[in-house]
């Protein structure tokens, strides 16, 4: 677990990058730090592996103050991925991945063997190990960056806008890969981005920073979307909060109905194997020869946002659902999706309200304690409840 | 003109001219000795300075300006000055040759270090390399093409300037130039000049070969810097 206690970072020129940050990052989860540029999110991340040292306060990893450790040794135990991958251009891919194992003195053979394993883990062909970074695409370089960070199997992974420089299609792929890896490895991940959609997609928890290094709110994505702490957070989350919340649920939670039978206006035409081919308007002037309107069949793993989108595009307002083999299993109507979405929204809102209520009580208690402490010692600054996560 | 070239060719190819204690072979070896020793000493001084400035990013302004000053020093003037101070010895020659080579090597080394992508340096530190590991495993290999260019440049300049050894009565190929001038023997002057030029080009090509051999696995990007 990583924890920040009253951590501030001031620079000699007078700017404050991080201002009295209190934050606990749970073990085995992805915490995403978001905010516009200059909000201190990258500084916060870099204080974990001491690339930046705090001006005051304590950053600890697994209960140990990072300043107490030797910086180089600390960093070898923490995976670090940066935006342009930062690969060593004069070393082969395999040697790039083997960097930390070699620094730890594993020996060349063992380090290379481990690097080859990782190449496979991040989905790169094994012959790419002999190549040089400039011979790889941006997306592939970024995979190598992740492999290098994971090489010595560190419990903590720091990712500083790792997918910021690749195109949207590749970014989505890399995000999926990260979620797949995370489901296997369960690392404690700190992920910095300015893209709120990426944060919602990847984060178990999202911490939103405001310019000047203030943490405004830290909560699971559903809670954040249902109940933003203030206008700044609401503005940052954007106008489509309800839709983003839908992206967090999958179609698996919704029941299916049989596909429309003969007699209904719209008929779902399938192949012999049962794969949906398109919608046919049986009441149109052309009857059974009418051209098929396109259908995008969805699986249980697709998000409700995708389902809602498809239900709008579908002429009958129905989403065609298929199993893993692409065979039609049933349909789900627009109303069902709406109804479920409304329920999800209400639940998330209630959960957030409950949490806020308990926190308010805790705050009152801690303020009372602080007031008590101040009575004993006039010099002790009161804790600022607005930055307590 | 044709006569002159014929005489020059005869001078350069006659066997008697090449042999003996003041033959071309001896002078060539002396010249090589002055040049290589001066370049090596200059490299020993300039490389650590350039690497340190490049690694820390500190003192660059001072170093670049000192280098500019060093380059502006007239070598003949420096030789005369040190000669007057130290008397008849090889010191004036070596000191001025080293003073000529150091700025070239420092600026190129610094330029090579400055061209290393800050993201790569950051990544190296972030993976847990200590300062000397960052320097020797990442920065130095990446800066090496430019550092080599600096060494080549310095070497060529030193070879061309080592003729001044003869100015203070020592050997080397400058002997022919200064003696020829004194004796109004144009062929001898030209012969010495041609030999100096050929030696400089040969050394440069040899170092270029070494450079190509060292970096044949390099991405083209690193060469371009």
Q: Could you characterize the architecture of this molecule?
A:
The complex is a heterodimer of chains A (389) and B (225). Chain A is of the alpha/beta class and 389 residues long. Chain A is 38% helix and 21% strand. In chain A, the strands form four sheets. In chain A, strands 6-7-8-3-9-10 form a six-stranded mixed sheet, with helices on both faces. The longest helix of chain A has 43 residues, at 334-376. Chain B has twelve helices and no strands. In chain B, 82% of the residues lie in helices and 0% in strands. Chain B has helices spanning 2-13, 15-18, 24-56, 60-72, 75-86, 91-114, 118-126, 131-161, 164-167, 174-182, 186-214, 220-224. In chain B, 36% of the residues are buried. With 225 residues, chain B is an all-alpha fold. Chain B has one domain (22-224): MetI-like fold, CATH 1.10.3720. The mean pLDDT of chain B is 88. Chains A and B meet through helix 2 and helix 4 of A and helix 7, helix 8 and helix 12 of B. Chain A: Residues 342-389 are annotated as: Disordered. Chain A: Residues 2-237 form the ABC transporter domain.
- Shape annotation of chain A: flat
Query: How large is the count of helical segments of chain B?
Result: 12
Q: Any idea what the shape of chain B is?
A: elongated
Q: How many separate domains of chain A?
A: 3
Number of strands of chain B: 0
Number of domains of chain B: 1
What would a concise description of this structure say?
The complex is a heterodimer of chains A (389) and B (225). With 389 residues, chain A is of the alpha/beta class.
């Amino acid at each position: 677990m990583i924890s920040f206690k009253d951590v501030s970072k001031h620079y000699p020129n007078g700017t404050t990058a991080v201002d009295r940050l209190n934050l606990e990052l749970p073990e085995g989860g992805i915490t995403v730090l978001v905010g516009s540029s200059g909000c201190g999110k990258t500084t916060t991340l870099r204080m974990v592996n001491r690339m930046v040292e705090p001006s005051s306060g304590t950053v600890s990893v697994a209960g140990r103050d990072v300043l107490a450790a030797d910086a180089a040794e600390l960093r070898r135990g923490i995976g670090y991925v940066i935006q342009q991958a930062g690969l060593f251009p004069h070393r082969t891919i395999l040697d790039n991945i083997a960097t930390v194992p070699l620094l730890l003195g594993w020996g060349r053979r063992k380090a290379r063997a481990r690097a080859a394993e990782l190449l496979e883990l991040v989905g790169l062909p094994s012959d790419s190990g002999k190549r040089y970074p400039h011979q790889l695409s941006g997306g592939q370089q970024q995979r190598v960056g992740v492999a290098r960070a994971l090489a010595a199997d560190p419990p903590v992974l720091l990712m500083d806008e790792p997918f910021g420089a690749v195109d949207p299609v590749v970014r989505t792929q890399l995000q999926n890969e990260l979620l797949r890896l995370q489901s296997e490895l369960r690392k404690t991940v700190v992920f910095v981005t300015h893209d709120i959609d990426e944060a919602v997609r990847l984060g178990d928890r999202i911490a939103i920073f405001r310019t000047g290094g203030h943490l405004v709110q830290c909560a699971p994505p559903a809670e954040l979307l249902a109940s933003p702490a203030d206008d700044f957070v609401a503005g940052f989350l954007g106008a489509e909060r309800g839709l983003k919340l839908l992206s967090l649920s999958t179609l698996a939670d919704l029941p299916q109905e049989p596909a429309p039978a003969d007699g209904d206006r719209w008929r779902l035409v399938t192949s012999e194997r049962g794969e949906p081919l398109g919608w046919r308007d049986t009441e149109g002037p052309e009857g059974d020869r009418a051209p098929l309107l396109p259908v995008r069949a969805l699986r249980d793993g697709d998000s409700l946002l995708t389902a809602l989108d498809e239900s709008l595009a579908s002429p009958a307002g129905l989403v065609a659902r298929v199993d893993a083999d692409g065979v039609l299993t049933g349909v789900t109507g627009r109303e069902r999706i709406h109804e479920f979405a409304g329920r999800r929204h209400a639940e998330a809102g209630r959960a957030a309200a409950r949490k806020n209520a308990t926190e308010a009580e805790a705050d009152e208690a801690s303020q009372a304690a602080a007031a008590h402490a101040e009575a004993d010692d006039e010099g002790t600054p009161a804790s600022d409840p607005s930055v307590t996560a | 003109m044709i006569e002159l070239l014929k005489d020059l060719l005869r001078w350069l190819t006659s066997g008697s001219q090449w042999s003996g204690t003041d033959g071309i072979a001896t002078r060539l070896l002396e010249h090589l000795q002055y040049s290589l020793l001066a370049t090596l000493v200059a490299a020993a001084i300039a490389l650590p300075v350039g690497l340190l400035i490049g690694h820390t990013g500190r003192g660059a302004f001072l170093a670049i300006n000192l280098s500019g000053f060093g380059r502006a020093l007239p070598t003949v003037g420096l030789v005369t000055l040190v000669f007057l101070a130290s008397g008849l010895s090889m010191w004036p020659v070596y000191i001025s040759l080293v003073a000529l080579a150091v700025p070239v090597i420092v600026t190129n080394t610094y330029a090579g270090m400055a061209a290393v992508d800050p993201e790569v340096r950051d990544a190296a530190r972030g993976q847990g390399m200590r300062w000397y590991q960052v320097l020797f495993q990442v920065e130095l290999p990446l800066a090496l093409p430019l550092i080599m260019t600096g060494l080549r440049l310095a070497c060529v300049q030193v070879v061309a300037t080592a003729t001044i050894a003869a100015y203070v009565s020592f050997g080397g190929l400058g002997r022919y130039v200064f003696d020829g001038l004194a004796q109004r023997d144009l062929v001898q002057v030209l012969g010495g000049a041609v030999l100096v030029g050929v030696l400089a080009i040969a050394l440069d090509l040899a170092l270029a070969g070494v450079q190509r051999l060292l970096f044949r696995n390099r991405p083209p990007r690193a060469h371009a810097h």
